[in-house]
TrEMBL record:
It catalyses: dTMP + ATP = dTDP + ADP. ATP binds at residues 10-17. It is an enzyme of class 2 (transferase). NCBIfam families: DTMP_kinase. Belongs to the thymidylate kinase family. This is Thymidylate kinase. One of its GO terms (cellular component) is cytosol. It holds the Pfam family Thymidylate_kin. GO terms for biological process: dTDP biosynthetic process; dTTP biosynthetic process; dUDP biosynthetic process. Residues 8-193 form the Thymidylate kinase-like domain. CDD domains: TMPK (cd01672). GO terms for molecular function: ATP binding; dTMP kinase activity. InterPro entries: P-loop_NTPase, Thymidylate_kin-like_dom, Thymidylate_kinase. The gene is tmk.
């Protein structure tokens, strides 16, 4: 039996991390074994790469390659073995984030991104991608109220406008796996929608 792979996406401050605990509890309540993880990160090596990626300035191709290096390790150590055991894997970001940030935000060509995707996970795609979508101003306000900003979170509004546009372009390109969640609503309203979406996946 193969488990299911759910990814959580959105610009920084959209609210995706807030809902991972809810989804974990919801699925556990339906008898599933759930592993929640994140990118970059999710393994000891990936967490070291995360620290570098979130705090060091680097060439945009170095950034893309390190994101995929972290991802390769995450797939090998966590995602593939957990799915093979029939467990459900929730990842706070996956390859759609590389398209949104490194291609949409920074301008790396989609062809290079597609080549990395084809190399690192030719046969793996999420069963469901929850895209938490909010206007930039809402995301900025939420972030400002919550913590010290990292390298990405300090980017200008135009950068996030391009990331958001690329996320929405990918949601339109892959309607079978994306659900776009209006994240301007209350946490409770969003969780009611998530429960409906998850019921359909079970
Ligand atoms: N629907 C919501 N309404 C009001 N506040 C929210 C909502 N969702 C999340 N928040 C708040 O916004 C802040 C950012 O949320 P969260 O950390 O989940 O965002 P994120 O998208 O995971 O950000 P990042 O990608 O930077 O980690 C938190 O303080 C959280 O409590
Ligand atoms: C996977 C991935 C992530 N990023 C960026 C997006 C965020 O700004 C950070 C991760 O921080 P979060 O608060 O845990 O969401 O990394 C990226 O640029 N490219 C990627 O592939």
């Amino acid at each position: 039996m193969q488990g299911k792979f759910i990814t959580f996406e959105g610009i920084d401050g959209a609210g995706k991390s807030t809902h991972i605990g809810f989804v974990t509890d919801f699925l556990a309540g339906r008898g599933k074994t759930v592993v929640a993880s994140r990118e970059p990160g999710g393994t000891p090596l990936g967490e070291k790469l995360r620290d570098v990626l979130l705090h060091e300035t680097m060439h945009l191709e170095t950034e893309a390659l390190l994101m995929f290096a972290s991802r390769r390790e995450h797939i090998a150590q966590v995602i593939a073995p957990q799915l093979a055991m029939g467990h459900w894997v929730l990842s706070d970001r996956f390859t759609d984030a590389s398209f949104a940030y490194q291609s949409g935000g920074r301008g790396l060509s989609r062809e290079k991104m597609e080549a990395l995707e084809a190399w690192v996970h030719p046969a793996l795609q999420p069963d469901l991608t929850l895209l938490f979508d909010v206007p930039l101003e809402v995301a900025r306000e939420r972030l400002a109220a919550s913590r010290t900003l990292d390298k990405f979170e300090r980017e200008q509004a135009e950068f996030f406008a391009r990331c958001r546009a690329e996320y929405l372009r990918r949601a339109a390109q892959f309607p079978g796996r994306f659900v776009v969640v209006d994240s301007t609503r209350s946490i409770e309203a969003i969780q009611r929608e998530l429960a409906d979406v998850l019921e359909r996946l079970l």
